[in-house]
């Protein structure tokens, strides 16, 4: 602002000074001519002395005036720019002008800096044959336009039919954003197209002015928003390449453009002839200030009588810096809370609609309405390239809604498929409570299985609602109006990077797509609204359009800056406007399925993490921070700890009935409820569990032995069984054949000690005595009675038994360890004996089980096994690519298909005391 005020004052001063100087110059010239004549006369008359004085007087006078003028323009020669987005190069400096005089001492002539009005003010027409001077002047003007305007503010377009490539040095800008420097138009057709595009831009901005007489700069300053777009069109060798239509277009752009941010520099080469019937060059010149480059020098139309010496060309190597600045350009921030309307916290009802305020367009708030019966806009599609403000936009949308509606009016399911922490603070881990009370489930680092399960949960909810509503109208509004006591919150489902759901061509993808389609088409009636966000929609559009266009159910399109291809994907085939956005946080709001006519530019308000946390704290306070309503958080990258396993045990009470089935807890479901998953150990034959596959990746994954999933699953199983039995005489036999490093990393010693405090009898075997123990199982099973207290053999690393089928005759053995294990497998469950064992290799497990025991194990938990092994285990159609902490659990009796679980982590060193205390309190 300051810079502009100074610029205006300085401009005025300059104009005044130049006017004075013109008068002076004219008077001087007349006087000079008169005096010259007199001089000659006098000289001839021999009065040489007097003539000398006269010349001296003139030199002194002009020097005095020059000093005064230079003083007047000093401010102007150093324009003030604060580097903000509102800066615009209103004037560009061309060089120094010297007053044409016939004085013998030209150095004594006055000189002034020459500034040309440009953006927001006018156009320039530069005539002269193509030369270094012409090229230099053009480059200098473009360079200043870019340096003196806010970064990324001005787009340069060019018409270059003779391929002069005068602007080649600015090409780094095109790498930042293809619209910052578009390829030059060279053919007549391209020139016409470019001018049509510019005219459309001009018209769109004129519309935005709504009849106000103003310039774009004034409008921006008034609104505090970088609305509209500044563009500089550079034409070389006019009229070459210009058809009559293009010339008329150019004239229109020159006439109407400057006030709305489009200025033009036209180089006219007198060597080129115009197409007959086209407006003459003079007509162009009437819309511009003129500069003439001739052999006699450079003259400007606005300083007649002065000759200009152009400034040296600027250092064009700095264009890379300009490009870098443009890359980092950011919209002015609009505070999230300032942007929100003045409504009471958590006081709105969602019977008719949901309303959120996400930013501003000029001074007007940008409000989105979902679910309204008249507008029929129910779902939102969001896109934005990396780092363009998508996370912020989603957080703004979520929190704007959360402020208005209480959780009884609005519930949310939030899913994030990218590795990120955006949603994490919304989960229930925070203290004091600052989670999002509206969130039912939050999926961080979600995987496809989880995503698909959220969608099927929502489909189930939708069906539940459909049944409820029967007889009360066919949509949520009617249902709620029919009887105000009907409580039915609307549900908002936000899925960031949702395309990940369709990454593979498999069952999960198919299921997810089918559910998503149902929700998108029918969910609206039941108050379920989808917000799907993505960086890269273009890859999946074809897939989604094949399904009869899911996107046709998403009237609201929100596009942050992205490539032209993405812009087409999120908006419309003909709509590349998102590629021309300039800032992070600048948004194209389109409420009409991406139709190009409905584009509206806005700036998303900016929500700071701390501000949102405080807001959520207030929301938690207001809604009573009902702990039973904490969101369930599923973090795909993390396995639940044993301490959490223990918390989940609170649901599994000790049963006084000793014959009741006990459940060995192994992990949690990959779904909205994130529930404990157990394997029931009943007295039926086959109730054993085999864990198979590597428990941790071999190397380089960042997952260490301390996270060994096989150990974690079996520790949780043992701990949960102990919790269910306590002191009823049950036994847990730990067979620890783990390599020492794994055993130590997973705190097996501490774990066994803790288990011992639970009331069950714990015994432990290792490599040294495992053979004898396994052999003894044969007799043990034979001697047991059905009423005996259960015994659970929990074997960690059974494939490390070296002499599994070895009959040790030397010691008089009559059975092998294999016989003992087979006896347990075959006959154990009816007499309360169960095996839970881990083999890291499927081959070894098959060898161990052999024909004798095949089919005697109902439960298989596969960890890191190959796809072939997974198909051997679960059937030829199984797709299993374990990535992260996941296991595929199949209870062959209970279900026809395996399901994905997240196995618990082994006992962590940091949790030893916590888990010990928990077990002591059982
Ligand atoms: N509306 C906005 N106003 C001001 N600054 C913003 C706005 N939106 C984003 N920014 C700036 O851009 C940065 C990136 O924003 P954000 O994390 O939302 O981007 P993103 O598109 O989600 O990025 P990514 O996909 O890479 O995680 C923010 O840290 C902030 O500095």
TrEMBL record:
Keywords: ATP-binding, Nucleotide-binding
Coiled-coil ranges from the UniProt annotation: none
Example GO molecular function: ATP binding
Pfam family, one: FtsK_SpoIIIE
Domain FtsK: from-to ranges: 363-569
Record bears the keyword Chaperone: no
Matches recorded under InterPro entries: FtsK/SpoIIIE/SftA, FtsK_dom, P-loop_NTPase
Designated name of the protein: FtsK/SpoIIIE family protein
UniProt cross-references to PROSITE patterns, sorted A to Z: FTSK (PS50901)
Binding site for ATP: 384-391
Segments traversing the membrane: none
